[in-house]
Amino acid sequence: MEQNKRNTGSYGEDLACKFLEESGFKIVERNYFYGHGEIDIIAKDGDELVFVEVKYRTNDEYGPPELSISKGKQKLVRRTAEAYLYEHEIKDQKCRIDLIAILQLKGEKPKINHIINAF
């Protein structure tokens, strides 16, 4: 079960990376871990460093993927982004956190919603 969930998450992140690259972003790193936190994608959008949370769903049983980011998850992503900046000694860098929500119902093309500066 856990491996299947990981494969699904990786597929969603692959779709998100492709979307970002086609939108002119440069992927810097994927799956950055710090403590209990993870940043799915770190990218550059021009001169801005972007931390990207990806939510991929194959059904809408629990609502759209955009709504699955709890306050606790937002806090963890922020803290992990700060750790990345600290570890890489990055200062005076314009940054933001984006959300890419992907819904791909069976037999359909994925619908991608890119929310810039999501939280």
Q: Could you please say which CATH topology applies here?
A: Trna Endonuclease, Chain: A, domain 1
Structural class, please? alpha+beta
Number of strands: 5
Order of helices and strands: HEEEHEE
User: How many structural units, i.e. domains?
Assistant: 1
Tell me the major beta sheet: 5 strands, mixed
Q: List low-pLDDT spans.
A: none
**Tally of helical runs:** 2
* Widest sheet: strand ordering: 1-2-3-4-5
N-C termini distance: 30 Å
Helix content: 25-40%
What does the model show?
The chain has 119 residues and is α+β, with helices and mostly antiparallel strands. The protein has one domain: Trna Endonuclease, Chain: A, domain 1, CATH 3.40.1350. The chain is 32% helix and 35% strand. It has a five-stranded mixed β-sheet with strand order 1-2-3-4-5. The radius of gyration is 14 Å and the shape is globular. The termini are far apart. The mean pLDDT is 94.
Task: Please outline what is shown here.
With 119 residues, the protein is α+β, with helices and mostly antiparallel strands. 32% of the residues lie in helices and 35% in strands. The chain has one domain: 3-Layer(aba) Sandwich (Trna Endonuclease, Chain: A, domain 1).
Topology of helices and strands:
Elements: H1 2-22, E1 26-34, E2 37-45, E3 48-57, H2 71-87, E4 95-103, E5 111-115
Parallel strand pairs: 3-4
Antiparallel strand pairs: 1-2, 2-3, 4-5
Defining key terms:
single chain, 35% strand, Trna Endonuclease, Chain: A, domain 1, alpha+beta, 119 residues, globular
